[in-house]
Amino acid sequence: xxxxxxxxxxxxxLEELQEFFLSVGDKKFRAKQVYEWLWNKxxxxxxxxxNISLPTREMLKENFTINHVKVDLMQHSSDGTIKNAVKLxxxxxxxxxxxxxxxxxxxxxxxxxxxxxxxxxxxxxxxxRMRNLNxxxxxxxxxxxxxxxxxxxxxxxTNIVFMGMGEPLLNYANVIEAIDKITSPEGLxxxxxxxxLSTVGIPKMIKKMADxxxxxxxxxxxxxxxxxxxxxxMPINDKSPLEDLAEALKYWYSKTKSKVTYEYVIxxxxxxxxxxxxxxxxxxxxxxxxxxxxxxxxxxxxxxxQASQEAVDMYVRILESQGIIAKVxxxxxxxxxxxxxxxxxxxxxxxx
Length: 352
Fold this sequence. Notes:
Blueprint: E1 7-8, H1 14-23, H2 29-40, H3 54-63, E2 64-65, E3 70-76, E4 82-87, E5 93-100, E6 105-108, E7 112-113, E8 131-132, H4 135-153, E9 159-162, H5 172-183, E10 195-199, H6 203-211, E11 217-221, H7 227-233, H8 242-256, E12 260-265, H9 274-283, E13 289-294, H10 309-321, E14 325-329, H11 348-351
Parallel strand pairs: 1-2, 6-9, 9-10, 10-11, 11-12, 12-13, 13-14
Antiparallel strand pairs: 3-4, 4-5, 5-6, 7-8
Helix pairs in contact: 1-2, 4-5, 6-8, 9-10
């Protein structure tokens, strides 16, 4: 994952950086200075490390590179949403989104180039998975949106959601390392409770997160609590049916005492009847949870269409009658294909 013969310096831990400086006859504390420039100040080049001597900066440039991402195309929605086409060091493209509301500014970031899960309603799934993102590439997406929040809204970034391209739990080690950098005082210093990881629900990885005692929030892309329907929507359900998912979530709650959010789209003629609503209410009883009913964002003229308002109201009524919190979320950024399920690099940068 290096450009040319030079290693990306951000692949080194602080300890490895200390070892490097000692090996070239420099002081150990120099590593901490460089590390702070890289992660706390999000520096993109060695020349700006002003408290590092010029000979040391030249030595770093001879040995290392900084493969920071580049926002090649920025699109602005009429509702304030910003979508970034982010070019990686190997010229592959991912997308990230800044979502502004009156109370918060959220960064929606990607964890993979493409996706391997083949969810039938999602545009990203059509790209197929090309590779995992490195921790620094995930971190850089957050930094870019943090800077855009300051520039365009004069407000700080408040939340991060791993709901962009890819399945975060299939790039677990890199995602966790990126979150460590984002939450560390030596990094961006954001609180873990302001981060939400969204997954289709891979039972063994949910259990691993619980064992690792992660502090961020968990969201499950559910969309049906009936196996037959969910398998039609999300083929991974054939390998990890709802029974296995429920078992993993019970383990998660027993370890973390953290409630789960279920993300749920209601489609016309797919899951818009009372049987599906009652199945969801029953599934929600496994552990403390809430439901976000998400507006569907069409990706073509295909089989999936947004359900009627009557169906949405019926879901909310049934869920609330069972004491389950249900929120209807309006999508943002639809006019620039930035809404949930629409990230598919449909722009000139990607086509080039």
